[in-house]
């Protein structure tokens, strides 16, 4: 409530401080949410954060003053425990402040008695003391408390565990920009406090430098680089881990349509754990041809070494991608990658490994009619040493139809995923189907209506079904006033377990007033 | 200790080098002064007066009255090259529109002012840059009052292109994107968006929120860290967007463990294979890492089930 008060005070101050310009306004929404739910509260994630009660929201608020100051606010469900609020104030090119607060609840048992609530409050600020210099910073406070069930709910042995921790983080930095060059420094600090076991209290620090600039006398070459130091230590035992990372690269414009780039990375992570220090080194080269908005092709090779002094793994990756927009309104994309990891020294559990990935997509877009997209992708990982193979395929299509005149708008899609994890001892397979769609009517006699929903089905080794349907109607009366009714039905069934079912009927009635200044 | 000091020393040398080069280089690039930018842009606005309004309130607002004070030097000529010729021969062919330029050319224009981690990554390791995604694929300059001049007003407008990722957020378990408690950029911070195969070292993104299970531990489970296992990290076992399994796991039950470890022989034979039939994490509770033993076993395992297992000497945790 304290934050809510501050936000309203800020809003009021800004509104009366100076005349406004341009289109300013937003919406005030007062409503009540009714929830009727039956079944296992811990299985349907879509309703975890729904609360019954009176809600007050202040949405999509924008206000620009003549002096260039801009205020933005999106304060949802201020009076409920699922509040999600963002407030921003700034003057473009000079300064900006943003604060936010949100909360989320997750349930772990049938009755919903074992749950945790996570809340996050934070803000950021930036300003330009000089046109080439930006100073920025921010902070966040995360807290989570409640009770949870241990890692996996293994029925009779499931252990209820109390959770109560907070984490404060903050960052500050400065960035200098001049003539296409940039140098940035940033510090990040984090304090983690576990109120149940102080042994887990941790402090983390990170400093990071980033730089970028065109090469002297040869501006077709751009050089980038950076350095990061990270360390995390338990407050009591001083047990910790740290990493030093250096990266860099260069891109050269060989021709107006042809670019080549190189990047490298060196990382050494040192730990007080049983893995004392590990080096990672990576080099990548890419060649890119682009005929603006028509065609583009990129080929690349990347080489990496992972060395922990006992074992050394080398990896080589090839990459190809391309796009083509040769036909009006059509776009085709393709991507292919292959990576081979070889154990050069020592022995590791996984041994040698090969990974491949494909993606192909096509999209038709018509600014008057809508769009249609199709995508196919696959991933494969094989590991002969441990006899393991992972296969994943996905096909997805989506469309939107925007009709002129009195006809409604349609949108929808279908996604099919098929995955298989196999090894010497067992396999796991899943096949997911997701269908979704929406129909939104145009306004007729001050009434708009909409209906939509989604259906999810997971089969093979799993046997899940869930769906959500929503109906909504709004009636505009007087000017800028609306009454809105939303009805949602949620259903979830896990057919492999008799106690994993859930149904909810949620009705939301809102009175909305549009604000315009 | 020596290794650490050497690394820090190398980092310092690199930073000093970058600073020196920037200072030297700054003399050679061209840039318009604030008043020059405004004066020359006034000529453009004589015909294109609507463009002044289209930038009002945005970062690119043209300070047409040349009001004193701190502010950006933004004007038409900063982005639209060829303006000199266009003033003499006003036609669509004589002026450069950003939307007609390639990614690298767009980034050159925008990069005159906007140079940060985001832009650095876009031209180096970010996959967007390699896929022909240009500045204007995500940003719209004129007639736009969205935050950061994004094409869409939703925080998660990334899903407009990455629709299949959006589909994953409808699975059984997922991060709470729909309720607005998490945004795409919370994990995929654009300044940090790198090629997944380049993410090594400590990738502490997940631990920023899930610090309660973060290490380091005396006995690490290597796969938890991307610096220990190439391509590893939390995502080796979890699907961060959404999963058909509980706890965002890639497989249900013991499958996720057996994928790498198989079923250890002793687990098949002892006590009628009880260890094979039970959940692995029933005993290996500290699966993210342990400060007690290198098998990630529950330190209270002996008392958890049958005290005799331990007291008989068969299952001493030290063995």
In short:
With 517 residues, chain A is mainly beta. Helix content of chain A is 3%, strand content 71%. The longest helix of chain A has 16 residues, at 2-17.
Gyration radius of chain B, rounded: 28 Å
Spell out the helices and strands of chain B N to C: HHHHHHHHHHEHEEHHHHEHH
Q: How does CATH name the architecture of chain A?
A: Beta Barrel
> Distance N terminus to C terminus of chain B?
33 Å
* CATH level-3 fold name of chain A: Maltoporin, Chain A
Q: Quick check: average pLDDT of chain A? A: 89
Helix content of chain B: 25-40%
Q: Give the biggest sheet of chain B.
A: 2 strands, antiparallel
Count of DSSP H/I helices of chain B: 17
Distance N to C terminus of chain A: 27 Å
Task: Give the overall shape of chain A, derived from the CA principal axes.
Answer: globular
Class per helix and strand makeup of chain A: mainly beta
Count of structural domains of chain A: 1
CATH class bucket of chain A: Mainly Beta
Itemize the secondary structure elements and their pairings:
The complex is a heterodimer of chains A (517) and B (319).
Chain A: H1 2-17, E1 25-39, E2 53-64, E3 70-76, E4 84-91, E5 95-107, E6 115-130, E7 133-149, E8 160-178, E9 181-194, E10 202-215, E11 218-234, E12 240-255, E13 258-271, E14 277-291, E15 295-307, E16 312-324, E17 330-345, E18 353-366, E19 370-383, E20 388-401, E21 409-422, E22 427-440, E23 447-460, E24 464-477, E25 481-494, E26 501-516
Antiparallel strand pairs in A: 1-2, 1-26, 2-3, 3-4, 4-5, 5-6, 6-7, 7-8, 8-9, 9-10, 10-11, 11-12, 12-13, 13-14, 14-15, 15-16, 16-17, 17-18, 18-19, 19-20, 20-21, 21-22, 22-23, 23-24, 24-25, 25-26
Chain B: H1 2-25, H2 34-47, H3 50-54, H4 76-79, H5 83-88, H6 103-110, H7 117-122, H8 127-130, H9 135-138, H10 163-168, E1 173-174, H11 184-187, E2 219-220, E3 242-243, H12 255-261, H13 265-269, H14 274-277, H15 280-283, E4 289-290, H16 301-304, H17 307-311
Antiparallel strand pairs in B: 1-3, 2-4
């Amino acid at each position: 409530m304290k934050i809510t008060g501050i936000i309203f005070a800020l809003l009021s101050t800004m509104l009366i401080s100076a005349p406004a310009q341009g289109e300013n306004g937003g919406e005030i929404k007062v409503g009540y949410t009714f929830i009727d739910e039956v079944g296992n509260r811990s299985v349907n994630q879509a309703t975890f954060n729904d609360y019954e009660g009176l809600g007050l929201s202040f949405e999509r608020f924008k206000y620009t003053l003549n002096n260039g100051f801009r205020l933005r606010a999106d304060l949802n469900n201020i009076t409920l425990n699922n509040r999600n609020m963002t407030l921003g104030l700034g003057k473009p090119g000079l300064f900006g402040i943003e604060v936010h607060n949100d909360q989320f609840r997750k349930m772990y048992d049938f009755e919903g008695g074992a749950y945790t609530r996570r809340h996050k409050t934070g803000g950021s600020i930036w300003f330009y003391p000089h046109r080439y210099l930006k100073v920025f910073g921010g902070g966040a406070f995360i807290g989570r408390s409640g009770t949870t069930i241990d890692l996996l709910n293994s029925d009779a042995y499931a252990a209820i565990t109390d959770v109560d921790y907070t984490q404060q983080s903050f960052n500050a930095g400065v960035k200098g920009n001049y003539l296409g060059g940039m140098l940035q420094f940033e510090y990040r600090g984090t304090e983690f406090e576990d109120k149940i076991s102080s042994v887990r209290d941790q402090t983390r620090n990170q400093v990071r430098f980033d730089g970028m600039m065109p090469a002297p006398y040869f501006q077709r070459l751009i050089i980038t680089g950076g350095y990061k130091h990270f360390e995390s230590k338990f407050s009591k035992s001083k047990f910790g881990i740290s990493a030093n990372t250096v990266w860099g690269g260069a891109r050269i414009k060989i021709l107006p349509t042809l670019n080549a780039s190189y990047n490298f990375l060196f990382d050494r992570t040192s730990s007080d754990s049983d893995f004392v220090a590990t080096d990672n080194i990576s080099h990548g080269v890419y060649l890119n041809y682009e005929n603006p908005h028509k065609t583009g092709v990129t080929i690349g090779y990347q080489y990496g070494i992972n060395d922990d002094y006992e074992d050394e793994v080398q990896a080589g990756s090839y990459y190809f991608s391309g796009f083509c927009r040769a036909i009006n309104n059509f776009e085709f994309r393709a991507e292919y990658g292959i990576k081979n990891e070889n154990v050069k020294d020592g022995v590791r559990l996984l041994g040698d490994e090969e990974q491949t990935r494909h993606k192909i997509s096509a999209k038709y877009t018509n600014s008057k009619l809508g769009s249609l997209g199709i995508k196919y992708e696959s991933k494969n990982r094989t590991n002969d040493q441990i006899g393991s193979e992972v296969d994943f395929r996905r096909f997805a299509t989506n469309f939107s139809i925007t009709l002129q005149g009195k006809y409604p708008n349609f949108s929808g899609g279908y996604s099919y995923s098929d995955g298989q994890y196999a090894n010497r001892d067992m396999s796991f397979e899943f096949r997911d189907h997701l269908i979704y769609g929406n129909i939104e009517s145009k306004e007729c006699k001050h009434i708009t209506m909409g209906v939509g929903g989604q259906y999810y089905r997971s089969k093979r080794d799993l046997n899940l079904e869930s769906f959500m349907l929503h109906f909504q109607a709004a009636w505009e009366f007087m000017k800028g006033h609306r009454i809105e009714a939303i009805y949602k039905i949620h259903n979830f069934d896990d057919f492999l377990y008799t106690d994993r079912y859930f149904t909810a009927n949620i009705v939301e009635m809102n009175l909305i007033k549009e604000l315009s200044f | 200790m020596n290794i650490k000091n050497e690394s820090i020393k190398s980092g310092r040398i690199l930073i000093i080098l970058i600073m020196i080069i920037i200072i030297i280089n700054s003399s050679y690039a061209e840039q318009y002064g604030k008043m020059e930018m405004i004066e020359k842009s006034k000529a453009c606005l004589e015909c294109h007066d609507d463009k002044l309004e289209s930038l009002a309130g945005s970062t690119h607002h043209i300070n047409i009255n040349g009001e004193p004070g701190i502010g950006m030097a933004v004007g038409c000529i900063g982005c639209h090259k060829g303006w000199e010729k266009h003033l003499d021969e006003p036609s669509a062919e004589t002026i450069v529109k950003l939307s007609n330029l390639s990614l690298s050319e767009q980034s050159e224009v925008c990069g005159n002012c906007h140079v940060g981690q985001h832009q650095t990554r876009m031209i180096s390791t970010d996959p967007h840059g390699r896929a022909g995604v240009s500045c204007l694929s995500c940003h719209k300059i004129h007639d736009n009052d969205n935050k950061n001049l994004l094409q869409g007003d939703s925080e998660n407008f990334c899903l407009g292109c990455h629709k299949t990722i959006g589909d994953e957020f409808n699975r059984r378990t997922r991060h709470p994107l729909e309720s607005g408690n998490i945004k795409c950029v919370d994990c995929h911070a654009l300044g940090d968006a790198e090629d997944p195969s380049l993410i090594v070292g400590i990738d502490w993104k997940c631990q920023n929120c899930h610090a309660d299970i973060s290490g380091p531990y005396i006995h690490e489970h290597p796969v938890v860290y991307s610096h220990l296992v190439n391509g590893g990290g939390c995502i080796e076992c979890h699907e961060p967007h959404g999963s058909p399994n509980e706890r965002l796991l890639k497989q249900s039950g013991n499958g996720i463990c057996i994928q790498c470890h198989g079923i250890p022989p002793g687990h098949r034979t002892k006590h009628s294979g009880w260890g094979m039939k039970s959940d692995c994490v029933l005993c290996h509770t500290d699966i993210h890492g342990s400060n007690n033993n290198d098998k990630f076993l529950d330190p209270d395992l002996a008392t958890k089930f049958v005290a005799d297992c331990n007291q008989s000497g068969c299952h001493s945790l030290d063995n």
